[in-house]
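The material for today's practical consists of a large collection of protein records. Backbone structure tokens are a discrete shorthand for how the chain folds in space. An example says more than a description, so a record of this kind follows:
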Amino acid sequence: MTPIVKGNQLTGVDNAPIALGSVAWFRWLGDHRVFRFVSRGGSFTARKELRAGRWYWYAYRRQQGQLHNLYLGKTEELTTNHLVNSATILSNITATREPASTDPQSPTVLTAKVTPPLMHAEVLDRPRLTAMLREYATQRQFFLITGPAGSGKSTLVNSWLAVSGHPYTWLTLDTSDNEPAHFWHYMVASLQAIQPELALHTITQRSALNTTPVATTLPSFINALACLPTNTTLVLDDYHHINNQVIHDSLDYLLEYLPQQLRLVIISRQEPTVSIARLRARGKVAELTFAQLCFTPGEIQQWSNGMADQPLSTEQVGILHTRTQGWIALLRLVLLAQQQMPEQASSHTFIPEDHPYIFDYLTSEVLAAQPQQVQEFLMQTAILECFNSELCHAVTQQHNACHIVMQLQREHIFLEPLDGGHQWFRYHSLFSSFLRQQLEQRQPELITTLHQRAARWYMQQQMPDEAITHACAAKQFALAAQLVEIHGHDLLMQQAVVVLQSWLARFPGSILTERPQLCLFSAWVQLHLAPRWDEIERTLLQAETAMQTQANRSPELQSEIIAIRARIAMYQGDNRRSLKLLQQAYTGLNKDNLYQRGEVALSLGSTYASQGILDKAEASLRESIRLSSNCHNLRTTLLAVRTLANLYVEQGKLLQAWQLYHKGLRISNDNSVAALPPLGFMYVGLGEICYEWNDLSRAREYLQRGIALGQRGGDIKIWLLGYAGLMQTLLAQGETAQTWSLFAEAEKLVKQTGFPRGQLLLEQLQVRLHYLQRDTAFMQQWSANCDLPLDANEIDARYEEDYQLLARTLLLQHQPAAAQAIIQRLCHQIEASQQQGILINLLISSALAYAVEGKISQALETLSNSLKLAEPANYQRTFIDAGPGLLPLLENLCAKPQIYSGYTTGYLEKVFNSSARFHSYKNVDSRYSAAGEALSRRELDILHLLAEGLSNQAIAGRLIIGQNTVKTHLKNIYSKLDAHSRTQALAVARSRRLL
């Protein structure tokens, strides 16, 4: 026999009766799946069922041949009060009877209209939304749930109320309810499911609602509602069917005088025309919109686990969320369609968006419900990625476009606002695809005209990207080409080469070959993204061929072709040819052509730098910065800044490079540009300097910012250099696994882009990273296969760093003589070019070689020379990265400060302590832990500026920080030096040789 709950006890079990609410009761529920509940309010059979991987209880009651159910909740929710209330609700909503009326004109109540919808087996528990509704329920009486068909409105409300423990009633509306008397008849009938005698005395007044003002007839109904039980909820579902203003007015009146114990929930596909704005202003309405109803990726994953035959991957869930945007009806249809098309299992074909199920649903539930004029508006505007009312008017030529947009927004016809002012919109992704298909089927002859109208409107608004897109879609390639020629240089100056590339990709090949300027734009794009020299040369030849067919040949274009060829020659290491071409290009340029003159000056500076002609390189790069900034060519300006800063770094002038990078940032700020890709070079450069100064946290921050800008603009050089700096920083911070993970990612991206220089940079970086890890086995294998001749009379500048690494590898293999030969050859070449930044590293290698040979005095003298060159720029990581073998030499110098001079004791001790701490050197003597070591790099910078006599304001301006920040640093300096004034701090600093 089925166990029975009656009189607060469970009987029919093996042992003694069990009291409801006791520990034994909940333990019994956990082990069993069915019982019978009987009370004065009604009875039902309770069953525990598995839904979406979890167990829930449901109540079932059969009445006059029909089976009705009610969600009871989880095991822990089955308390006595909850079961009693559930029995009463189930008994009332299943009772089929004539309305409590003696009026023969009163219609029969359809039970289905006053019965909550059945709960489906795959209903997902959505605690994110039900928690919001529970919180709202403690503060508000009026709930408004809006969203399109299939967005889960009714299911959510039903699930929430079914477990709330409070009585509720449901009224599903349709078009027949637009008569006020009929509407109120059903509203009262639905409430009588909870309180059968409710409002019987108002029966004779219902018909008067059709003709009498609401203020005359409604008070008696509202007074009757005051007799309802506490916390009763009335749900009006599908309220969008109501279009009678009299009913809207009566509902406004009800909301104004709503009894305290009644909560009203309206579910609608569109915002009802009641006084919502007034209620919002008074804080009396709780709202859930389509955006909140949509499934999150996590909810899609959980829900699909119970729907699909196989769990979806994270990638598939992401694609599903992007394409459906969490719209529940489409999710269901997509999964159903996907199950019928199992061969489409890859991520790229996972969403069968044109499946008949999906488009049939959109046709019947959305498009067919709209007037013909609105249907045409929807289809015609679907050619637009985004739109506002003015653009819609230009494309559709419907004068009421603004009104239609507002209507669509109010009715939730899948419009997504793109700005806070709700001026620009776009359609839901799948809905847009559906509308375009409908346009192709119904009005294909109109598509070209629509794109032409859109192109003209965007041209008038000075929006070239969109204008070009629609001009190409309309096959008006001549117009699109003119727009690219007008705006292409602007994109190059902004380093928006990916955008320019997308423009050029829209043209057929014949258009490019006819227009030399487009060919040159194509060459610049290839040069900046993934250069292949033979392809670029073919493009330049096409430009020259096209120029020969033109009556007026432009010498400016010919000079631009020469400048591009010179840049290629420079990248290939042919500096002599590069200089010859650049000088030729420069003579053909008009003096007013600041853009091209700045480009040529940049190439000249880079070529001179490659040849070691530093004075001419610096002069050309400064000229490029001047010319390019004057014509607002920020791309070239920042590239010249990067090149000149690199020149300073090679010369050991880190502070000058630091200041130059900040100048580049100021130039961008002055031009209100915050996301220009070449700005990535500024941040990458600052990160590289911070790494050298051993400020690893700031280095990481700068490098990540530079990488983000480079990736956003598609410039492989920026983000690859950023990756290189970030990998070394991560390795210095002990994050080895993340370092090599990043290296693998960089390798993958370089292979995808086919960037040969990038591959060479990664090969060199791999060796450096293994050296920093002291991976002797890898370094030995590399040195055996690197094909770098040890007896080369002159080392090519392109391979200088490779030879430096080879020398360090030979030292690891105890071959100091071979290493010293390479080092001395490199030193001879570097000394002639005054590249002291590189020389510092070479002197350190030479000192290590002397130490391996046992020539300690030469080692100390050489290391002392490197410290003398390094101190003005505060080099740190160059000494740390040399490895633990340098520490005994540094310790020796610390012990004999009077023998070697040219640098301060404070700087020597800082270098030693930083290296010893990093390498966990056991012989660190406390006497070398000078007080100055406690000062941070920024504090030492400020200390040096104090010694120059600068004021707080001047220091803030020099370091580009706030005056309050300067004061904070000064306070820390005084504390660490045990000083109370500038004079005392400087005296202590000098006594400790910090200055």
The radius of gyration is 39 Å. The chain is about 60% helix and 10% strand. Residues 94-106, 344-349, 923-933 have pLDDT under 50 and may be disordered.
